[in-house]
Amino acid sequence: MIGFGRRWDPTGKLAVVTGASSGIGQSIAMQLVSRDCHVIAVARRQQRLDELAESYSDRFTPVVGDITSESTRQRIVDTVGSHGRSLDLLVNNAGVGAIGPFESASPERLRGVMEVNFFAVAELTRSLLPMLRRSSDAVICNVSSVLGHCAVPDKSEYCASKFALHGWSDSLRAELADQSIGVTLVSPSTTRSEFFDVLVDSGDAVSKSLGSWPPQRVARAAIKAIERRRSEVILSVGGKLLVYADRLCPPLMARVLRKRKR
Ligand SMILES: NC(=O)c1ccc[n+]([C@@H]2O[C@H](COP(=O)([O-])OP(=O)(O)OC[C@H]3O[C@@H](n4cnc5c(N)ncnc54)[C@H](OP(=O)(O)O)[C@@H]3O)[C@@H](O)[C@H]2O)c1
Q: From the record, what ranges are coiled-coil (predicted)?
């Protein structure tokens, strides 16, 4: 059974963090490393990971590659295996966004977003479950979004991918409940990262969001949720308002979102 009542402690643990070359993932990786956790850091930009590895070589192992590729996922599994021990934490953080109406968007945009934000996450997790199971106290942390709880216009592919991640996380949590593996779903609101500079096939579209958190703050909240073994955390007051208003009164939220679109 998971160590209920006792905090999950990163000290001396082994973690995999995807999307560790920027934003939330980089901050999560750095905060874990600074607390004596060894991090296997995954992303496509080698230079970014190499720079981090230079500063933290004894507790930081980069794996350069695209998580949608099976060969990258196999290299992650092999890298965990080379440590000759169990895996204690998997942070599925890598993700991409897209903005703009659904009808005129390409089928590739839908596929691209779903591949990174959902299918790659599910398959990487499937591959790493045997190593997580060997830990006496493992956690899978899935970085979702408030848009995985409440859908908004012009982000249909992204909302679909994060709703899928949400549903899959809830199901997996129940499946793993008696196997010493916790599942924490972290749902940030708008975060000041490189996310909006690399949108998939979205032209000059901009996101209309009020207020935002720096990635370091999101990372602190995510690690706190892991430590406290939370099933789900929704970050920021605005995010909570959006999600709880939608849960309490869906027709009202539908009206608000229709007005916002005009
Ligand atoms: N920013 C926001 O407003 C916001 C709000 C709510 C939720 N989120 C979620 O938070 C997570 C992190 O986003 P962020 O804001 O930190 O954005 P970010 O700065 O753009 O970071 C995204 C990370 O994912 C990696 N990545 C993207 N595609 C990848 C792929 N195919 N294979 C491997 N790595 C890949 C990127 O690295 P490389 O480019 O080097 O591969 C980068 O390290 C995402 O899941 C996002 O959906 C973000």
A: none
pLDDT classification of 36: cutoffs 50, 70, 90: very high
Using the atom order of ligand 1, give the atom closest to the CA of residue 45: 40
Which residues are annotated as catalytic?
A: 158
Q: Which atom of ligand 1 is nearest to 18's Cα?
A: 34
Q: Is the dihedral of CA 240, 171, 169, 90 positive or negative?
A: positive
197-224 pLDDT, tens digit per residue, is 999 998 877 776 667 999 999 999 999 9
Q: What is the pLDDT of residue 1?
A: 43
Q: Note the pLDDT tens digit of each residue in 142-165.
A: 999 999 999 999 999 999 999 999
CA of residue 99 to ligand 1 center, whole Å: 15
Task: Give the largest Cα separation in the chain, rounded.
Answer: 56
Question: Whose structure tokens read 């493992």?
Answer: 138
CATH number for the domain formed by residue range(s) 14-236: 3.40.50.720
Distance CA 186, CA 199 (A): 21
Instruction: Read off the tokens for 128.
Output: 């790493």
